[in-house]
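Supplementary Note 3. Input sequence used for the single-chain structure prediction.
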Amino acid sequence: MVPGLEATKEEIFGYTPALLARGMATLPIDGPGQGEAEYDLPIRGDYEVVAAAIIDWIESRADLDGNRVGMFGVSLGGYHAPRAASFEKRIKACVAISGAYDWAENWDKKSDLNREVFRIRSHAKTLEEAHANGKTLTLRECAKNITCPIYIIAGGLDRITAVEAANQLAADVSGPKIVSIVEDGNHVCHNRPYKVRPQTADWLAEQLGRIAFGALKRR
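The predicted structure, written as discrete structure tokens, is reproduced below.
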């Protein structure tokens, strides 16, 4: 479970009760440039490297099923999750909420605060350097590699990430997809959690449960 640009693992923890109630273990993280990790690790566009390290750790644990790993991201995490799923095929299902398609594409339209936070968390010395770093956060050439089921959500009233980003991602992916535009939702649909959290939890439980059922049938 991956939080956004200005968020932390403690904030995304709010999504976990719905998943736990459906029998799924959860792992909220601070990735590079996030929360406690931001001081040592800068934001990076190739989040598949981060996901691979985490899944390696999951597979080392006897109390977790490394064959049924889903990835759930919101805001900037909504970019990180599909980016990881583009390359890391151990991810069996992906949820992306209000994620960017090409983060730096609208650089000039971002707020001063948004650009400055990204500069700091990408460990850039200047905004120009930060802009260059931001260009590495893109799904433009890799979203076509997403073959696992993906649930894409956007808020119709989102003033931070345009709805078009969800449509662009959906148009590129190769696997099964659901696109949900919450017309009265703001960024990450924080104002409409009841339209997002139960549905995504049900969907993830179905996708990962289907893998387990398939394994039982093969036995």
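The longest helix spans residues 197-218. Residues 9-218 form a domain with the Rossmann fold fold (CATH 3.40.50.1820).
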